[in-house]
Amino acid sequence: MHRYLGCRDVGIAVTARSGPERSRLARRLETAVTYKRVVMRQAGQGDDRPVMLAIAGDSAAGKTTITRGLVAAMAGEGINSLCVDDYHRFDRQERRSLPFTPLSPACNYVGIMEQHLQLLAMGEPVLKPVYEHRTGTLGRPVLFEPQEYLIVEGLLPLHNRLARACFDLSVYVDPPEEIRRHWKIERDVRDRGYAPEQVTEDLLRREPESAAYIRPQRQWADIVVRFAPIEERAVAGGILSATILLRPTAPHPDLGAILTEDTREAIHLKLARDVDGKPVDALHVHAYASRDVTRRVEEAIWRGLGIEDDVPDSLGVIEPGLRSEPLAVVQLLLLYHLRLAKHALRADPSPHAPSSVSSSKSISLSSSGSARRDGSGPRLSAG
What we know:
single chain; alpha/beta; Rossmann fold; 8-stranded mixed beta sheet
């Protein structure tokens, strides 16, 4: 085997071997991944490297809604977004005769996506493919240049290890399946020309690949966001509360000054168990809280970002005329992480410094039940 075997080739070779040789090739893949990370940091050091946020989740989970509000809120600071669903190999018509769905890596140019993410992480432009969701057709490639902040959303941004290494922070959007299915039927009928029974049939066909390729990405996320109702707390308009799992793989804001008895109606933090049984901080944002209370929470987080202007109206918008305060809080926390990553990058742009926000410590619960964080970077307070 050639001594300069690439990461992709080593990965393929690993699957074809067994025993000691498989272990040896796996170690080579680990070395190749580590080397690529160092090269990316050296090439993308300093302010030329964008801060990259991944937002993964199943179809119609809410990824684009979260992304749209973030991009609008930071419009004047240099931010753009990319949807990895643009890397679909086949259009809607071609997929009808194929044995897999868009959720499968076989239906996507995963290798090209991975290469493009690495180039973008170094601040380089790419010629990005285009998939038109409304028509199900493939468009002409477009030149895409990353700005200071880049949000990458879609079905498979966290599927591959090398792709995951490109991100400063990763999020998985995880609504209950019955809610997501309702959202998908509603959206695909309204925006993509499907009949309800077609969407229902498609959901059944996609389920095995969702279980095999989409939901496993949850384990790699620094933050897991779940929009769901609270029992016996129905809210007019169907607005859902949010549970935000703050995993210790990333630093999180000090919310001690915000999580008070005065704001408990709107937000509270408790220690919970993740799906793997490990303890995790769970931030609950209640949709039933009064607007005045949730607005105080939002303004406190916004001021903690060091911004003098008012909280942008784009945060929390689901669609024109319909907003969600839990969504706004989720987006504000993600804005905090983006700014924290940029702060860390400017503080130490050397190629050997940790380039990811995952290098710091996370929120923990003190004995009094309030939240605290040890580490550097901006800290949130009530003012």
